[in-house]
Design goal:
CATH superfamily of the largest domain: Histidine kinase-like ATPase, C-terminal domain
Strand order of the largest sheet: 5-4-8-7-6
Strand content: 25-35%
CATH topology of the largest domain: Heat Shock Protein 90
Oligomer: single chain
């Protein structure tokens, strides 16, 4: 009991404490600490009240009593202590302050100390709340709002740590009663990371919006109810609708009535399949009623759960492209008309020379159908080139990048041919090299060129005959005139007559050449038998005999007068160079050749002289002019034929005239 005496401050407290312990022994009261007493005790600081809680305790020797002592506190102080204890367990900064404290902290937890970089609670409590705000006036206004409204929720502002580092804080505070007094309990959450992320997102969004608003295309987003929820400024600028009007419109409302069903079907299909719309062309109808051609694309977008939450897309003005397409279409139509109605054959070929397109003139000129030509290539109609030549030529055209010309000879379906000059141009196509070839028939050009060449050659021959060949007999006649006048010898006069006769023959032959075209254009069918007999009668054939070895119906097509001259010259040549009796034969060529021949059974022509006999001035006779066979060759060539000299069947001379020379290269 000495312990009781030491604890109790006076006799009354002593008796009360003893009674409490006896009660524990005697009553065996239930509970952990069934007996409680409050006693005044003496301490070094004076007398103070303490509470004692007593409970029985089983010992080896019997039952003992456990006594727990704690100071007696004011109930109001206990409530505040519970608040403070609870606040210490929270991970966010918490402070408590009374409205009358002028912004001073009465309590802060450790999380607040950490947030504001304080060394201790005492250091943080030494600063006012106002000093922790970047905008000091803001704290005053916020405090007044809390008192007026009773609370603020998630008020975000910039705060300063004790190191003057700026942080973002989210403040939630409530005016509440603690221990009978009004207290402000505030919670501060550091949201700096979130605010920085939000700011970065805002800057990124502003950057993207700036780009999107600056682009000429319309960007738009609809939700699943087909309300327009996002769009750039271009949408309003183009359509003329204000923001309120735009946000009340469905996708199909932007199109004319004639196209709305198409748009509804496209949207329905996209919604059903969740596949995007690509390059849908339609007319965007403005508020003013204008219709602008646009190309639309739209695709669904999803949330984190892969659920479609809307549809976003782009609309692009294709007015310029449509205009270009119209112009290109018109150009193509004009080119197609020119292609179809061109007076010359036109082909489109690939790099190997295969035809991919031909015009109507190509089919009529060559005699093939369009289908046949499209199965052919350049080498099939031009005997002067093969496929490798065509490839090489096309490669050269592509490399040079400019049109090139090529001369050739086109073969027709009926076996005939004609000379051409073909102009090749590389076409502008995507992914494939194609070439446009314009083939012009140059038969007339070549004939004109040949005619001009022959005319020049003929003029040169005329000049030679006049300046040289005629001068000899003229000089001879002039010389013998004086001699004949002095001598009176008939032989001298005969020499003059021969010279004059030779001059007459030469002039006649020159006139024949002058009267003949270099290229015969006007022709008529002539029976060979009739032609030969008429020429035989006109020629001075004396005792020679004519044999006709041709069918009476055999014909040639040419100029009658010129062919008569050819026959007369050849008949006369046979008679003049052979002794009678002489047989001259006329027949048609064999071995599949077209034409005729004139041969005799005379002495013939030496093999080494068979080409030069047609040269101008060539003669083996003193009285010859050297023009006869030259004129024959000229007249034959003017027909487009070819003449050659060879040996006859009986060893005499044979002249063969082939009438198909114009079809040879």
């Amino acid at each position: 009991m000495d312990l009781i005496a030491q604890i109790a401050a006076d006799d009354e407290s002593h008796a009360t404490f003893r009674q409490a312990i006896e009660t524990v022994y005697e009553q065996d009261a239930p509970g952990d600490f069934p007996v409680e007493v409050t006693l005044d005790i003496d301490t070094s600081n004076g007398t103070t009240a303490r509470q004692y809680r007593c409970s029985p305790y089983e010992l080896t020797a019997g039952t003992g009593v456990i006594v727990v002592s704690e100071p007696v506190t004011d109930p109001k102080s206990q409530e505040l202590a519970r608040y403070e204890g609870l606040c210490e367990t929270l991970p966010v900064a918490v402070w408590i302050s009374s409205p009358e404290a002028q912004g001073q902290f009465e309590f802060v937890n450790e999380a607040a100390v950490d947030m504001f970089n304080a060394d201790s609670k005492e250091e943080l409590k030494a600063h006012s709340r106002q000093s922790l705000y970047a905008n000091t006036d803001e704290q005053v206004e916020l405090g007044e709002q809390i008192v007026a409204d009773g609370a603020v929720t998630e008020y975000e502002t910039v705060l300063l740590t004790l190191d003057e580092e700026a942080i973002w804080g989210s403040i939630t505070a409530e005016l509440t009663e603690i221990d009978g007094d009004d207290q402000i309990v505030g919670i501060i959450e550091n949201v700096t990371d979130r605010k920085q992320k939000e700011r970065a997102l805002q800057e990124e969004r502003a950057f993207i919006d700036g780009i999107v608003d600056g682009l000429p295309d319309i960007f738009y987003t609809f939700d699943t109810e087909w309300s327009l929820i996002e769009y750039n400024e271009r949408a309003s600028a183009v359509t003329g609708y204000d923001h309120q009007e735009l946000e009340s419109m469905a996708p199909w409302d932007f199109f004319p009535d004639t196209e709305q069903e198409m748009i509804r079907n496209a949207v329905k299909q996209m919604t059903k399949s969740e596949k995007q719309i690509d390059s849908l062309e339609a007319h965007l109808q403005t508020k003013a009623g204008d219709e602008i051609p646009y190309e639309f694309s739209m695709a669904p977008f999803y949330d984190a759960n892969e659920t479609v939450v809307g549809f976003t897309g782009v609309a692009r003005d294709i007015t310029d492209r449509k205009q270009q397409e119209r112009e290109l279409k018109e150009k193509r139509e004009r080119l197609q008309v020119l292609f179809d109605t061109a007076p010359d054959p036109i082909f489109v070929t690939d790099a190997d020379g295969k035809f991919t397109k031909v015009n109507e003139k190509a089919t009529t000129k060559l005699g093939y159908s369009e289908e046949e030509l499209l199965e052919m290539e350049m080498a099939d109609i031009d005997a002067e080139i093969d496929r490798s030549d065509a490839r090489e030529f096309h490669s050269t055209v592509k490399e040079k990048g400019e049109p090139m010309e090529l001369e050739g000879r086109h073969q027709c379906a009926d076996g005939s041919s004609y000379p051409v000059k073909v102009r090749f141009t590389l076409l502008e196509t995507d992914g494939q090299d194609l070439f446009l070839s314009h083939a012009r028939d140059v038969t007339q050009q070549k004939e004109s060129k040949q005619k001009l060449r022959r005319q020049n050659e003929r003029l040169e021959k005329f000049a030679s005959v006049i300046s040289h060949d005629l001068r000899n007999p003229i000089g001879l006649a002039e010389g013998y005139v004086d001699i004949a006048e002095e001598s009176g010898d008939p032989d001298d006069f005969q020499t003059i007559r021969k010279a004059l006769g030779r001059m007459d023959t030469m002039i006649e032959e020159l006139l024949t050449m002058a009267g003949a075209d270099t290229i015969v254009e006007d022709r008529e069918p002539i029976e060979l038998v009739v032609l030969a007999h008429e020429a035989w009668r006109m020629a001075q054939t004396e005792d020679a005999t004519l044999e006709m070895l041709v069918d009476s119906q055999a014909q040639v097509t040419g100029d009658r007068d010129l062919l008569l001259n050819v026959f007369e010259n050849l008949f006369r040549n046979a008679v003049d160079h052979n002794e009678p009796p002489l047989t001259v034969r006329v027949g048609t060529l064999d071995d599949g050749r077209s034409g005729f021949y004139i041969e005799d059974d005379g002495d013939g022509i030496p093999e080494d002289a068979r080409e030069e006999i047609f040269d101008h001035g060539h003669t083996t006779s003193e009285d010859g002019t050297g023009l006869g066979l030259y004129i024959v060759k000229e007249l034959v060539t003017a027909h487009g034929w070819e003449i050659s000299a060879t040996g006859g069947h009986d060893g005499g001379a044979r002249f063969e005239i082939e009438t198909e020379r114009q079809d040879k290269d």
